[in-house]
């Protein structure tokens, strides 16, 4: 063994199983069950990082989730790089490669540390003050420089090759934290036959029992732990180590991340890296423990300065000495337990610097060299502490300084549950307030620090009667806030916030702790101020001469510790991110060379280039084919709803603008749906198949929302109507045939429907057979040409498409469809409408059944603003140059509308556009202007119908 | 994530549902006779309470039905769900 600071015996690590690892390229050895932090300390490595703003050397402060400094990047190979991992929680495995962060060029020699010299520039609010002017400097000088100098680890550039799973779980009792309180709660809950789940963020369950050398219920703590885990396994309690409960969501839903493979040198390839648990629990017991409170003094961030209980944990759990000459700064009796444990291991405690005004019983009986009413004034040492200067001027050489400012109960999850916290004066900390049923708290997170009290609270919290009385405890935290007059005394290590920054903020008038937090960035780092927040609050309260409860606390937000994006995304990535919808004819259409576009989740053919055609030339050819011969179009994505029942017509009368009850079977009508406020929601064709049966189409994107809208009225406003709604969008494959030769193109395929113009006029529908399969044949047009839409059962779509296409019909896509409908001034909902458009705005007032007493939206159309003459109205815009959709239209320098659609019209051999223009119909003939970045385009206002205004072509 | 008790299907996670705004706002029978102020109040004025709120939900990825729900907007706790047409529990 070459680990100079490893003890020869004790702890829970396995000295017989050495583990080789690398830190910044240096080969080191640890032991099985080490964390990266304990292995580094065993090798005497305290310096592990550089600080965020000032690049000050930083060391390991804690032994747990609260670690602010020891953030490392771990490279597991093949692009598996994770930055910002806490070395205190990273389990060591054979071959681990870890790197320090935020240093250049090396950890011990960092060029950025010269920023110590410019530190006045980086004080509170520096973002707002220093770099304001000139503006261009921000983007080109300040920001790149700051980004290069400040920051944490770098995100990996390659895609994450790992797999992440998500899993749901329901239980009666979820216990968060497997320390003495949590395990006692689990035992009590299991005893009443509840379904129990216990999760704990550590690799080994036990919490503080793992470093406890006293007795529990008459037996050694370690035996009690073994026995408790044995009983829980026997009772089928689900035990989840390495699982961090990070968020509390409404309805007792807890998000927890289980790390499955990060601790394994060679994980099985079928294992996911992490598993995100969605745990729904009837009851939740939070037994999350507490973290030790650091002290704020000048030079408190030097490597070698750490929490006292962390030093005790490293010794008793990992067999690691954090130094050989140790000074302890105590504001709480628990510091003495740590000091005594270290002394027993042969570590020299050179001074117990106790800031309290009188020696406590524990201090007097400790036999340690105690300095009462003294504090740390400063420290020195370049990359590691080598001397502490006390408030009385005494200088003590040392290689570690332990601090203990009492305890901070981990109320993070409890607070996320929206329960209230209360400030405990004796503890000088926030505790769970009145329990109203969401969360039960037990143990140190509830303010109980005595082991017996923790276990009693646990039994009570896991029992049937719920929240226990809070056990009292003798512990007392500092009543005095820190006061520092010189040097840099850090409050937030990770974001480099000093006591001076807090003073600056209060001097500049900040009063709310939420504002102070944002101005100074204290508590805003990845550790969410687990160590910093309470000290910051106490300091601000003191500066403002206010009691802490008056200042309040900042909001606790999820996640408790950072969660990988991979776990949150789960399997919803790549092809599985969002389902892709394809029409039944997708393969046939693709074989014709279609270029697809995404429309919602659908893939639709946009155009069909032939040879070397670009989109413009392909669309021009497709347009000519439809206008001069016949084209075919896959219209399957249109939403389709079948409306049936004796009151179907009455229902549609109330939902659509038109009078559908007067529609004869076999006929179709174009209709609008309005919101109750009168705005166009969707449009489509309503076809009456029989007295009590309608086939209604919607826009592609509107299908789901139209059905929801109809169901809303059917169920809640018109429940007396006997009508049923069925989505049949995916039941039917739809092929549109459009053009003067459309009838010839389908005639030979249609078996039992008379296609003669008198038998099947424009806007009619027949049921029959096409290509031998059942079909609904609509005679409708969205191009202005003679047109049909063939609906056949979806599975038959490809066969019918092939049969018709074989007759020399040109396939066209959505781009051509858009050009042709724009030439006719037909609107597209969502393009010509935007949620503020009423029927008359887009020239569709004629769809309204005037004689109907009521329909959804009718009353709103009579509101004064709907009757104004300066409403924006749909017009055509002609110009020499192609316009851009969304461009503003101005008149005399004032914006009066915008371009909604703009295309090259192959038919007119001219650019055309549609626009919504204030009082547009009264402006026909006027010249308006469209300002573009490089020029202004003159446009002439016209009627929105550019082609075949009389509609003669519809009739073939 | 809320756990919502559909009156027909039982307790289901929130992502099976779609929110439907405040409950118990009936569409006026005689819309044409309402003046603009009364109609505007029906269209737009909502209670938005801090505390108990009667609201509509639809079990859109389940039975598809609308129902009503009493939810505390501060704690997000659901006190009751009930079928359309039934009065709100007290
Ligand atoms: Zn349901």
What does this structure look like?
The complex is a heterodimer of chains A (956) and B (90). By secondary structure, chain A is of the alpha+beta class. Among the domains of chain A are: 294-403, FAD/NAD(P)-binding domain, CATH 3.50.50; 490-551, Arc Repressor Mutant, subunit A; 584-637 and 731-829, Gyrase A, domain 2 (2-Layer Sandwich), CATH 3.30.1360.120; 639-728 and 843-860, Alpha-Beta Plaits (2-Layer Sandwich); 868-956, Beta Barrel (Elongation Factor Tu (Ef-tu), domain 3), CATH 2.40.30. Chain A has 22 helices and 49 strands. In chain A, the strands form 13 sheets. In chain A, strands 8, 9, 12, 13, 14, 15 and 28 form a seven-stranded mixed beta sheet that branches. A six-stranded mixed beta sheet of chain A has the order 40-41-42-39-33-43. Chain B is mainly β. Chain B has a single domain, classed as Folate-binding superfamily (Folate-binding fold, 2-Layer Sandwich). In chain B, strands 3-4-5-6 form a four-stranded antiparallel beta sheet, with no helix packed on it. A two-stranded antiparallel ribbon of chain B has the order 1-2. In chain B, a hairpin with a 3-residue loop joins strand 1 (3-6) and strand 2. The chains are: A alpha+beta (956), B mainly beta (90). The A-B interface holds A 249-253, 278, 280, 418, 436, 438, 676-677, 708, 711-712, 715-717, 719, 853-854, 858-860, 863-864 and B 1-3, 13-14, 18, 20, 26-27, 31-32, 34, 36, 39-40, 43, 56, 58, 60, 64-66, 74-78, 84-85. Zinc ion (ZN) binds next to loops of chain B. The site of zinc ion has 7 residues of chain B, from loops.
């Amino acid at each position: 063994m070459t680990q100079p600071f490893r003890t020869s015996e004790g702890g829970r690590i396995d000295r017989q199983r050495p583990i080789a690892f690398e830190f910044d390229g240096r080969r080191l050895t640890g032991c099985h069950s080490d964390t990266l932090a304990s292995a580094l300390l065993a090798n005497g490595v305290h310096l592990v990082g550089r600080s965020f703003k000032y690049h000050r050397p930083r060391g390991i402060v804690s032994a747990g989730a609260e670690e602010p400094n020891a953030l490392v990047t771990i490279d597991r190979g093949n692009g598996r790089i994770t930055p910002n991992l806490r070395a205190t929680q990273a389990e060591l495995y054979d071959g681990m490669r870890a790197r320090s962060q935020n240093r250049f060029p090396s950890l011990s020699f960092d060029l950025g540390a010269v920023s110590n010299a410019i530190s006045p520039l980086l004080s509170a609010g520096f973002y707002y003050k220093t770099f304001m002017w000139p503006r261009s400097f921000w983007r080109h000088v300040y920001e790149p420089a700051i980004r290069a100098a400040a920051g944490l680890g770098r995100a990996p550039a390659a895609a994450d090759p790992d797999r992440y799973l998500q899993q749901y779980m329901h239980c009666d009792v979820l216990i968060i934290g497997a320390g003495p309180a949590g395990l006692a709660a689990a035992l009590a809950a299991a005893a009443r036959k509840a379904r129990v789940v216990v999760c704990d963020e550590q690799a080994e369950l036990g919490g503080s029992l793992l470093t406890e050398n006293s007795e529990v219920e008459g037996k050694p703590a370690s035996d009690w732990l073994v026995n408790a885990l044995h009983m829980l396994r026997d009772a089928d309690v689900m035990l989840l180590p390495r699982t961090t409960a990070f968020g509390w969501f409404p309805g007792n839903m807890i998000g927890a991340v289980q790390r499955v493979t990060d601790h394994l040198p060679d994980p099985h390839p079928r294992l996911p890296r992490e598993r995100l648990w969605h745990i729904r629990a009837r009851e939740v017991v939070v037994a999350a423990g507490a973290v030790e409170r650091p002290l704020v003094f000048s030079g408190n961030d030097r490597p070698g300065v750490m929490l006292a209980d962390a030093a005790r944990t490293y010794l008793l759990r990992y067999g690691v000495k954090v130094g050989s000459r140790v000074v302890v700064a105590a504001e709480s009796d628990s510091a003495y337990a740590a000091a005594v444990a270290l002394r027993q291991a042969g570590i020299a405690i050179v001074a117990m610097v106790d800031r309290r005004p009188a020696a406590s019983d524990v201090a007097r009986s400790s036999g340690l060299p105690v300095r009462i009413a003294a504090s740390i004034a400063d420290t020195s040492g370049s990359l590691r502490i080598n001397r502490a200067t006390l408030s009385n001027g005494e200088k003590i050489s040392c290689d570690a300084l332990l601090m203990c400012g009492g305890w901070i109960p981990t109320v993070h999850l409890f607070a996320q549950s929206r329960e209230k916290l209360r400030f405990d004066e004796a503890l000088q900390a926030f505790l769970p307030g009145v329990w109203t049923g969401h969360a039960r708290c037990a143990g140190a997170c509830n303010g109980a620090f005595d082991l017996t009290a923790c276990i009693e609270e646990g039994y009570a919290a896991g029992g049937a009667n719920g929240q226990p009385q809070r056990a009292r405890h003798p512990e007392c935290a500092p009543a005095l806030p820190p006061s520092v007059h010189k040097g840099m005394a850090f409050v937030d290590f990770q974001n480099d916030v000093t006591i001076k920054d807090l003073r600056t903020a209060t001097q500049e008038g900040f009063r709310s702790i939420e504002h102070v937090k944002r101005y100074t960035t204290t508590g805003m780092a990845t550790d969410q101020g687990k160590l910093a927040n309470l000290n910051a609050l106490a300091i601000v309260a003191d500066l403002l001469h206010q009691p802490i409860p008056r200042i309040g606390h900042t909001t606790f937000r999820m996640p408790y510790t950072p969660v990988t994006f991979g776990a949150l995304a789960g399997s919803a990535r790549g092809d599985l991110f969002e389902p892709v919808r394809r029409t039944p004819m997708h393969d046939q259409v693709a074989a014709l060379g279609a270029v697809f576009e995404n429309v919602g989740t659908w893939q639709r053919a946009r155009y069909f280039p032939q040879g070397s055609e670009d989109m413009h030339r392909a669309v021009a050819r497709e347009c000519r084919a439809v206008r001069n011969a016949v084209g075919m179009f896959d219209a399957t994505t249109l939403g389709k709803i079948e409306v049936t029942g004796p009151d179907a017509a009455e229902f549609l009368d109330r939902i659509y603008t038109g009078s559908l009850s007067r529609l004869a079977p076999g006929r179709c009508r174009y209709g609008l749906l309005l919101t109750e406020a009168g705005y166009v929601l969707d449009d489509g064709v309503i076809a009456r198949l029989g007295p009590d049966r309608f086939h209604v189409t919607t826009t592609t994107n509107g299908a789901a929302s139209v059905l929801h809208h109809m169901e809303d009225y059917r169920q809640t406003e018109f429940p007396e109507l006997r009508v049923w709604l069925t989505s049949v969008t995916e039941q039917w494959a739809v092929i549109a045939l459009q053009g003067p030769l459309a009838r010839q193109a389908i005639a030979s395929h249609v078996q039992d429907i008379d296609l003669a113009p008198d038998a099947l006029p424009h806007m009619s529908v027949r049921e029959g057979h096409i290509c031998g399969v059942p079909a609904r044949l609509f005679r409708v047009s969205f191009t202005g040409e003679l047109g049909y839409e063939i609906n056949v059962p979806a599975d038959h779509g490809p066969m019918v498409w092939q049969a018709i296409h074989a007759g020399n019909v040109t396939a066209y896509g959505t781009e051509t469809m858009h050009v042709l409908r724009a030439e006719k001034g037909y609107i597209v909902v969502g393009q010509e409408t935007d949620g503020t458009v009423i029927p008359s705005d887009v020239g569709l007032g004629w769809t309204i059944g005037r004689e109907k007493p009521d329909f959804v939206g009718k009353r709103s159309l009579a509101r004064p603003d709907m009757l104004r003459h300066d409403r924006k109205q749909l017009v055509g815009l002609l110009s020499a140059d192609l316009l851009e959709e969304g461009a503003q239209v101005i008149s005399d320098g004032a914006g009066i509308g915008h371009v909604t659609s703009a295309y090259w019209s192959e038919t007119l051999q001219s650019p055309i556009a549609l626009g919504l223009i204030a009082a547009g119909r009264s402006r026909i003939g006027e010249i308006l202007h469209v300002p573009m970045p490089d020029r202004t385009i003159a446009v002439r206002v016209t009627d929105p119908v550019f082609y075949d205004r009389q509609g003669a072509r519809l009739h073939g | 994530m809320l756990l919502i008790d559909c009156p027909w299907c039982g307790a289901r996670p929130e992502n099976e549902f779609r929110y439907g705004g405040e409950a118990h706002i009936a569409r006026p029978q005689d819309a044409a006779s309402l003046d603009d102020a009364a109609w505007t109040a029906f269209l737009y004025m909502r209670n938005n309470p801090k505390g108990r709120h009667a609201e509509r939900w639809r079990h859109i990825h389940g039975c598809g039905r609308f129902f009503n729900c009493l939810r505390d907007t501060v704690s997000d706790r659901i006190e009751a769900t009930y079928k359309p047409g039934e009065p709100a529990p007290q």
